[in-house]
Design brief:
Largest sheet: none
Order of helices and strands: HHHHHHH
Structural class: mainly alpha
Strand content: under 5%
Shape: elongated
Oligomer: single chain
Helix content: 55-70%
Radius of gyration: 23 Å
Length: about 180
């Protein structure tokens, strides 16, 4: 008998942690451009190659950008990017090595033990710097590409789920006339 995602609890978890928060964000009437930028920013910061610091990076970005980004969207995208983060550490490491012309760091279990026990050698620390360099160079491209991909998706989703117009320039009731009464004093 095949095992479906709903049988092992992935479906309800996915709905509770990802789908429901996304629908709540969309129903609040967020601008599509802001939503696309925030999601792209959250994923870009979420794939930072040092595990455990992405939430702090997102919080700093939210504090610096203020109303230019939508904080719940940034944090949700950061959460979604966690498995991607783990899979991109090695590509960022290799990319950083290519950019810097540094030596190829062998990924062995011995090197991982040294990192986890706090006995990291100079080579391990250099590999971390290479991974950071790889991410730093790739991050602007990741951000722009994700924004370009997310913008049409966000426009469609906002139009589908938002109860209010997506722009404050559009009136709620376009055919309603407003008449002002002027009193003589």
């Amino acid at each position: 008998m095949p095992v479906s995602p709903s049988m092992i609890g992935v479906g309800p978890w996915f709905n509770k942690k990802i789908v429901d928060p996304l629908i709540q964000i969309l129903r609040r009437g967020t601008e599509p451009k802001q939503l696309a930028f925030s999601a792209a920013l959250g994923i870009t910061l979420g794939v930072f190659p040092i595990c455990g610091v992405t939430v702090f990076l997102c919080a700093m970005a939210i504090a610096l950008l203020g109303s230019l980004c939508h904080s719940p969207s940034v944090m949700l995208a950061n959460f979604i990017a966690t498995p991607i983060e783990l899979s991109l550490v090695v590509p960022f490491l290799r990319f950083g090595e290519v950019i810097s012309g540094g030596p190829h760091f062998p990924l062995t279990s011995d090197a991982m033990k040294k990192v986890l026990t706090g006995h990291a050698s100079r080579e391990v620390l250099l590999s971390i710097v290479h991974a950071l360099l790889g991410w730093l160079v790739a991050a602007p491209f990741i951000l722009v590409i994700l924004y370009i991909i997310f913008l049409p998706c966000c426009k469609l989703l906002v139009r589908k789920f938002s109860p209010v117009p997506s722009s404050p320039k559009k009136p709620l009731h376009p055919h309603v006339e407003v008449k002002l009464k002027v009193r003589d004093v």
